[in-house]
Amino acid sequence: MTMIDIRNLRVRFGQGTDTVTAVDGITLSVREGESFGLVGESGSGKSTVLRAVSGLNDEWTGRIAVAGTEQGPKRHKGFYKLCQMVFQDPYGSLHPRHTVDRILAEPIAIHGLGDADARIDRVLRDVGLGSAFRFRYPHQLSGGQRQRVAIARALVLEPRILLLDEPTSALDVSVQAEILNLLRRLRAEHGLTMVLVTHNLAVVANLCDRLAVMNRGRLVEEMTVEELRRGAAREPYTLQLLRASLGYDRATAESFRDYA
Amino acid sequence: MADDTPLLEVSNLRVAFPTRTGMAEAVRGVSFTLGREKLGIVGESGSGKSMTGRSILRLVPPPGRVTADRLAFNGEDLLAASPRRMRDIRGRRIAMVMQDPKYSLNPVMTVGRQIAEAYRVHSKAGAAEAKRRALEMLAAVRIRDPERVYDRYPHEVSGGMGQRIMIAMMLIPDPDLLIADEPTSALDVTVQMQVLAILDDLCSQRGMGMIFVSHDLNLVASFCDRILIMYAGRVVESCRASELHAARHPYTRGLLASLPRIDEPPGDLPVLSRDPAWLEG
Amino acid sequence: MTARTDTRSATWRDWLTTDTPQSRGQARLGRAWAGWTSFRRNRLAVAGLLIVLALVVVAALAPVLAPYHPYAQDLNNRLLPPSAAHWLGTDAFGRDILSRLIHGARLTLMIVALVAATAPLAGLVIGTVAGYFGGWVDTVLMRITDIALAFPKLILALAFVAALGPGIENAVIAIAITSWPPYARIARAETLTVRRADFISAARLQGASSLRIILGHVMPLCIASLIVRTTLDMAGVILTAAGLGFLGLGAQPPLPEWGAMIASGRQYVLEQWWVAAMPGLAIFIVSLGFNLLGDGLRDVLDPKGD
Hints:
The complex is a heterotrimer.
Chain A: E1 2-13, E2 20-31, E3 35-40, H1 46-54, E4 60-66, E5 69-70, H2 77-80, E6 83-86, H3 100-110, H4 116-126, H5 143-155, E7 161-165, H6 173-190, E8 193-198, H7 201-207, E9 210-215, E10 218-224, H8 225-230, H9 236-245, H10 250-254
Parallel strand pairs in A: 3-8, 3-9, 6-7, 7-8
Antiparallel strand pairs in A: 1-2, 1-4, 4-5, 9-10
Chain B: E1 8-19, E2 22-34, E3 38-42, H1 49-56, E4 65-67, E5 70-73, E6 76-77, H2 83-92, E7 94-97, H3 101-104, H4 111-121, H5 127-140, H6 146-150, H7 159-171, E8 177-181, H8 189-206, E9 209-214, H9 217-223, E10 226-231, E11 234-240, H10 250-257
Parallel strand pairs in B: 3-9, 3-10, 7-8, 8-9
Antiparallel strand pairs in B: 1-2, 1-4, 1-5, 5-6, 10-11
Chain C: H1 2-17, H2 24-40, H3 43-60, H4 62-65, H5 97-133, H6 135-150, H7 153-164, H8 168-195, H9 198-205, H10 210-246, H11 258-265, H12 274-301
């Protein structure tokens, strides 16, 4: 079944002459249980798409349907039990004055689910943190540990969809590998549908089944990760992105063009 | 200038900071020499790579302490240099480009004026001459319309252009050594390539030496001639860029193995397990 | 014996500084302990704290500490210089100045406590609501704040007591009403910075109501700046109250309010300087104490230093 169905999504910021069209008519869909990568450089609009789907951004036009239900600008509480998000910056996504326990207990309290202690313990174990971490403050955690707490927070409501906005970009390389492995395991264990926004094609190749490439608010190309691995991109922008991801090459750098 | 004097000699460099529990060393005995080549220093956060770059220019703020058996630039002892001499060297002989042009460019001055000013600080040129040279530099960093960009403010230019302006500003006095601290990390990957191409060309044209500090192992391996891998304040591996795949230290091998690759099938990435023995180098 | 006490104190210190707290309480106490050790290092701040604590103790134990009754007049012994019998001398009615200062500490503390309990709280609520919701809510609340800010404290207090009659309660109300705008501004500024943070977005994504976010997420981050500003303002509050007392508009005789004591001692300042100087010294010391405490708290609570 189609878990996320986006038709002709348009997001504009500002008014009059200052209008910026961040997302310019995107149509894509994500199947249940799929891991979908949304790739692009800065200004491509990929994060904006995610924010529109999650309900953080309410000024969009077009059609967004999640789990078969069409969504309006505002989301109702039940939506958040279905769809959760993990943010990029592990240092900014946890409240500096809340313990891990408080951070994880909050969604439980908001939705009136009982059994807080058991749920918190379970979700901490799920993300590979022991109960020793339960009463620490964020400044007592490393970057990787903070990101694990952020993932735990997203999972505590047992969502079916996980939206991830550059979840490993701010992490060290060695920590990135751990988090990618964790996300892979969680997806398998919980049957999650994942949408991963990133600029890193290697991360997409490692974690996703399909991907879409965005540039300046438009969808450039959709492909499977298998095609990505073979380098079988069709659009020149995608090919350029692929070549740039392989490392510095003087001759290739010369050939790069600005695709507006 | 004697051709066999290395451009930079660093021997047993140590940078220490006082903390509540005694002195903490961010850099613990780093040694290397640099000729007119591109040297990459790679490490994760906390490895001491940025401190190493800054300590060469004696830019480590007090109460940090920099000590070394030898820290020489073109044969001249930098540790013994007076503050006046260091100010002379900084900018004119050794330049530094940092990560985010948003924070290194003066937001209330046009970019052209900043570049011209950088030129006038290190030469006795007049305003007209400085402007001419600034325009020349803007063209050298492949900015298509130097006249128009000259009058722009930093917030009006994109990240990639801002970084090119930084490079123009830093290279206008024609330094011998460029220290680049994550110069392309804040840029998109295609823009990264273009900026690196500019750095590559300028360095080879002018015979400059470059130290490229980064966390991106693949980028450094493809851009630099030699690589130093740092861990916990020490250099754990030193090799030619082309021989990185044959690295010997377990940290380097672990780091290389844990990188996801486009052409590899999906599956768990080997996770780096830190051996405490690595702390001893 | 020493070894045992050492291990005992080592254990509770370990309990406080452990990085794996086992309960909410332990985590909170540990954090408070970390703040205290940091604060303790600043000698001047500790001095400030001691002064403020001394004020509280003196106020609490006033009837016990004061050698004489503050209203007991002894016209044979008026305007006596400091001596063994009267440590700080006597005033124009022969009342012991030391006893009056000690009882006056109660009034000072009451003024400080009332203002500190009301103005910052009002400012916090207004500032966070304005900052979080933005739009017309922000505009309306901030314009009200601007208007309130435009009133000079002393003049408004004068107007207030002129309307309601002199008295220490009215003086305190007047001071409190004019004090809240700066706190609203501070709270709003903090809220604007915090509003964009990912943890706020995450809270919204859990379905948290605006009230929950403001109370649980935004306000805790504003508290630090507000506490610092409040302690620093206390010195000014004391001086304003003293000023009103000096003008005869605050505490009425025979209340031993320090400002009123300075006012009545004014006419004797050349010959019997102690009548005005002693209460002046008391005000100075307490204001200094609050200032030092506030500076010390700023160093500890500054969220940017976190």
